[in-house]
């Protein structure tokens, strides 16, 4: 009995070792799976370590100055020197500043009214107007808290002001938190979830389309038919555009009814640009399906693309707080532009004029993905 038990144990060990070797050989052949296992942890470490910043600084700011005075220049210099504000635009009118904020080009607008320095020297306590895009409460909150200290440092350097400013503020800082004055988290998160859910579902749906045909053996029949690769792609994408549109409508209804997210802009414009975003993600997913050799690889590629979309789009962390290289990468992702579109239309009442750059970016990404998919389609069975 002891000898038989030893033989059984030896046989089990050999079979286990053979299976162990077989899995390593299969993993070596499936290079995409192996690369995914190595690549994803490295990407997560790099993005969380270098790109993610929960206390954003150097936030884009526009100034509207109605007078050229020493005090105005002192305040602007203080804004330039602080690590929280970065003056990127000089607005010429309130309408221009409103457009810059609706389009997402700036997060803050500082207006110095006419007669400001004279009012300070006379003790009239004039108002310094500061508008903040509070649709992202995290990005706006820290900078607004630091604003008063920035202005005080500007006053301290101006020795020509009366001594009363040491005990009584020389002027009032009038803050206006636009689009989300109560800093309600759901108003920031729920519109972003619309794009996040659509990205995840649309990528996976179409990433499996071509690989499913290959594994079922029906791709040969498609290639033998008198139909062009572009026509096959459009035929496969079109039904999912309708499904994605239904998903977007359902999420939007729940956002309005359950979370009380307002829709300040045009619903028709939101529907149009949502359709463009859905088509862009479907095109990217279709491109993955022409590269992957099986459905598992298609899902892995979709997840590898989905991860940076979540981290670099501004959905979870303030986009303006990321380093420049991370922002450049984020600009190449469809979700980055769609989140700006959704928050702009729903919270800010933005128009197509305000969002034209984001719409063109989505259209450009869609055309690139479609071109790659069509060029690769004929080689999927090679």
How does this structure look, described?
- The chain is an alpha/beta fold.
- It folds into 2 domains: 59-178, abc type-2 transporter like fold (3-Layer(aba) Sandwich), CATH 3.40.1710; 185-377, no CATH class.
- Helix content is 66%, strand content 8%.
Throw out a few tags for this protein.
382 residues, alpha/beta, abc type-2 transporter like fold, five-stranded mixed sheet, elongated
List the helices and strands and how they pair.
Blueprint: H1 2-29, H2 31-51, E1 59-65, H3 70-81, E2 85-90, H4 94-103, E3 108-112, H5 116-121, E4 127-133, H6 137-157, E5 172-178, H7 185-207, H8 209-216, H9 219-224, H10 229-258, H11 267-291, H12 295-312, H13 324-331, H14 334-348, H15 356-377
Parallel strand pairs: 1-2, 1-3, 4-5
Antiparallel strand pairs: 3-4
Helix pairs in contact: 2-12, 3-6, 7-10, 7-11, 7-12, 7-14, 10-11, 11-12, 11-14, 11-15, 14-15
Share of β-strand residues: 5-15%
Helix content: 55-70%
Structural class: alpha/beta
Number of domains: 2
Shape: elongated
Detail the poorly predicted runs. none
The secondary-structure element order is: HHEHEHEHEHEHHHHHHHHH
Count of helix runs: 15
Strand order of the largest sheet: 2-1-3-4-5
C-alpha termini separation: 56 Å
The overall average pLDDT, rounded, is 81
Rg computed from alpha carbons, rounded to a whole number of angstroms: 28 Å
Count of extended strands? 5
Largest sheet: 5 strands, mixed
């Amino acid at each position: 009995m002891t000898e038989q038990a030893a033989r059984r144990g030896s046989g089990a060990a050999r079979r286990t070792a053979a299976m162990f070797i077989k899995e390593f050989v299969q993993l070596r052949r499936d290079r995409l799976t192996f690369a995914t296992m190595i690549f994803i942890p490295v990407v997560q470490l790099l993005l969380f370590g270098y790109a993610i910043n929960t206390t954003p600084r150097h936030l884009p700011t526009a100034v509207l100055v109605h007078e050229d005075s020493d005090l105005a220049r002192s305040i602007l210099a203080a804004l330039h020197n602080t690590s929280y504000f970065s003056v990127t635009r000089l607005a010429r009118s309130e309408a221009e500043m409103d457009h810059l904020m609706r389009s997402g080009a700036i997060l803050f607008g500082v207006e110095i009214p006419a007669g400001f320095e004279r009012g300070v020297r006379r003790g009239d306590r004039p108002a310094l107007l500061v508008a903040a895009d509070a649709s992202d409460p995290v990005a706006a909150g820290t900078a607004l808290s630091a604003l008063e200290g920035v202005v005080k440092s500007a006053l301290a350097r101006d020795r020509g002001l009366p001594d009363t400013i040491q005990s009584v503020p020389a002027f009032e800082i009038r803050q206006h938190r636009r689009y989300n004055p109560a800093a309600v988290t759901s108003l920031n998160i729920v519109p972003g979830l619309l794009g996040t859910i659509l990205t995840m579902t649309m990528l996976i749906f179409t990433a499996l389309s071509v690989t499913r045909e290959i594994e079922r053996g029906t791709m040969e029949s498609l290639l033998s038919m008198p139909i062009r690769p572009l026509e096959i792609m459009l035929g496969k994408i079109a039904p999912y555009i309708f499904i994605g549109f239904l998903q977007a409508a359902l999420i939007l209804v729940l956002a309005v009814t359950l979370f009380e997210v307002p829709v300040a802009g045009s619903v028709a414009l939101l529907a149009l640009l949502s359709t463009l975003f859905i088509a862009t993600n479907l095109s990217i997913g279709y491109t993955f399906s022409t590269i992957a050799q099986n459905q598992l690889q298609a899902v892995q590629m979709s997840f590898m693309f989905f991860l940076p979309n979540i981290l670099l789009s501004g959905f979870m962390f303030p986009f303006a707080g990321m380093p420049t290289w991370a922002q450049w990468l984020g600009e190449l992702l469809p979700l980055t532009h769609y989140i700006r579109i959704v928050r702009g239309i729903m919270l800010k009442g933005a128009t197509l004029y305000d969002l034209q750059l984001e719409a063109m970016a989505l259209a450009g990404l869609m055309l690139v993905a479609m071109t790659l998919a069509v060029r690769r389609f004929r080689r999927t069975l090679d």
